Amino acid sequence: MLVHYEGYLEKDGSLFHSTKSELIDGVGVVIEVIREGFPGAWQGSSHKHNNGQPIWFTLGILEALKGWDQGLKGMCVGEKRKLIIPPALGYGKEGKGKIPPESTLIFNIDLLEIRNGPRSHESFQEMDLNDDWKLSKHEVKVYLKKEFEKHGAVVNESHHDALVEDIFDKEDEDKDGFISAREFTYVHDEL
């Protein structure tokens, strides 16, 4: 999903994050964005956002807050939606960055574009045998074997090992030995 959004704290209405450029007296001003305020995978260090550009994220793979995953289902391109996210579906008891613990969050979200990924969330879940939201080499190898057997192909251990190594060389971007749900979004003929 490609979205523009603004995030506010319910308690005082203060803006903690925005992807939009605001107009002040007719002059465009880019709001500085702190990545810690963004829901999900892009949390971390301070970062000035891409000159008011919208952001891409994948719904349903824990890349956003749970409240986003639930609240944006069924949204259509061009739709604007206001989400009120309770702490349990947001940053909870810990808070995050500028967001205090136990904060209810308000997001105004504009959906600009939807793209179907080359592989589905369901495929990832099928491969993720231990439900830890990352794929190990063993999990990928097990999946490849099942796919080969399902299509009547001969299972060749050394061939599967080479395929798995090739997949991880290309897709394990952070070289941590796992393919995360985010890294999984790229196309592979092997899978």
UniProtKB/TrEMBL annotation:
It catalyses: [protein]-peptidylproline (omega=180) = [protein]-peptidylproline (omega=0). Residues 1-115 form the PPIase FKBP-type domain. This is peptidylprolyl isomerase. It comes from Cricetulus griseus (Chinese hamster). Keywords: Calcium, Disulfide bond, Endoplasmic reticulum, Glycoprotein, Isomerase, Metal-binding, Repeat, Rotamase, Signal. Its EC number is 5.2.1.8. Monomer. Homodimer. Interacts with type III, type IV and type X collagens. One of its GO terms (molecular function) is calcium ion binding. Residues 115-150, 159-191 form the EF-hand domain.
